[in-house]
Amino acid sequence: MNLVKQNWTEKDVEPFQEYLKSFSKGEEKAMWEKRICNTSLPCLAVPSQIIKTLAKEILKGNYIEFLDLSIWENLSNTFINGYLICQIKDFSIFKKYLDSYVQKCDNWASTDTLKFKISKNNKNDFFNLSKIYIKSKKPFVRRVGLLILLKLLNFEEFTSETLKIADSFFDEKEYYVNMMNAWLICDAFIKYRDETLRLLQGKTLNKFTQNKAISKCRDSFRVSEDDKELLKTFRI
């Protein structure tokens, strides 16, 4: 199927879906994907490399029109949409489509597939967006907010406020949000050891996040053996 189109219409949806399904690894793999991703969406078990290849082909044409078709029938559709959204250079347009995307997310794979292109020109826009998302009532929107903050750790000026935000999730009950927060704190420790160490010393995080962040640090080859032993003393 030709995916490099200048015009996508509703008539293209069914042929595209059939083409996508032709790459499925079968019902057994699809059931495994559904169980691992813990999603309510149907799964096709299309390999990630094929997903990326298809998305790259769509990107060569009018991919915005493809996004406007709002194809969300299965998890593979979600991955394709996520890839395309992250290619949008204009931040206001990007935000419009991402806002719609995150509202539909019901699993960790749909959030973690997002590969944000954060630069010195849009870093403040991303930071402000993260502060909106972490206030959402939907757990996977909050997870995306924390994911953005994790990526922003590449810019040192956001470190202090990022750690304050991470510390504000004491009452968080959702596993997938707490897990992302733990990843965030682990990465912060690796990049900004002293400041993050003070947070962990204070033991103000909820028990799961504190202990999981420490476990992730102890599993990392980027953390010294001395620090791994030190971190053990901060477990709750």
Q: Tell me, what is the CATH class of the largest domain?
A: Mainly Alpha
Kindly provide the radius of gyration, computed on alpha-carbon positions and rounded to a whole number of angstroms: 20 Å
Q: What is the distance, rounded to the nearest whole angstrom, between the alpha carbons of the first and last residues?
A: 55 Å
What order do the helices and strands follow? Answer: HHHHHHHHHHHHHH
Number of helices: 14
* Beta-strand percentage range: under 5%
Poorly predicted tracts of residues: none
What is the correct CATH architecture of the largest domain? Answer: Alpha Horseshoe
Overall pLDDT confidence: 97
Summarize the structure.
The chain is mainly α. The protein contains 14 helices and no strands. The chain is 63% helix and 0% strand.
Protein described:
There is one protein chain. By secondary structure, the protein is mainly α. It has 2 domains: 1-104, no CATH class; 116-236, Serine Threonine Protein Phosphatase 5, Tetratricopeptide repeat (Alpha Horseshoe). 63% of the residues lie in helices and 0% in strands. The chain contains 14 helices and no strands. The chain has helices at residues 13-21, 27-37, 48-59, 63-68, 75-85, 91-104, 108-112, 123-133, 139-152, 159-166, 175-191, 193-202, 207-219, 225-232. Helix 3 packs across helix 5 (75-85). The chain is elongated and about 60 Å long. It starts with 12 loop residues before the first helix and ends with a helix.
